[in-house]
């Protein structure tokens, strides 16, 4: 039997979730529920590398590459949870994919106002965590 895809929560993201529980229980519940479901649902895992999956609200979430870093060789992604009828949760899940082990690493849970700029403290924290995982940069 081959390697089975899996999802893990980096300690930084776990801290983000704990802080979110203290400030926005609704959002924290939505994020925690989706992450828990993804850990056990191969159908969700199968969509996490499908750029623009769910963009048309055909799923409960939207997947996209973090293009600035993707284009620089980093396997970084972000996920937006849809809130019906037409909005989205105010937080995004940032994760990395490690092809060698088929593992998804949730690195951060960030407010949607986060600007994804290279010099932002949160971006630097995410890149540090990514490098700490030892995922090859292409």
Provide a descriptive summary of the structure in words.
This protein is of the alpha+beta class. The protein has helices at 11-23, 25-40, 42-45, 67-70, 121-133; strands spanning 6-9, 61-65, 76-83, 87-98, 103-111. A hairpin with a 4-residue loop joins β4 (87-98) and β5. The longest helix is centred in the first third of the chain and has 16 residues, at 25-40.
In short:
With 138 residues, the chain is an alpha+beta fold.
What is the topology, as strand order, of the major beta sheet? Answer: 1-5-4-3-2
Overall structural domain count: 1
- Helix and strand element order: EHHHEHEEEH
CATH architecture: 2-Layer Sandwich
Give me the CATH superfamily.
Answer: RelE-like
What is the third-level CATH name, the topology?
Answer: YaeB-like fold
What is the first-to-last residue Cα distance? 28 Å
Helicity range of the residues? 25-40%
**Class from helix and strand fractions:** alpha+beta
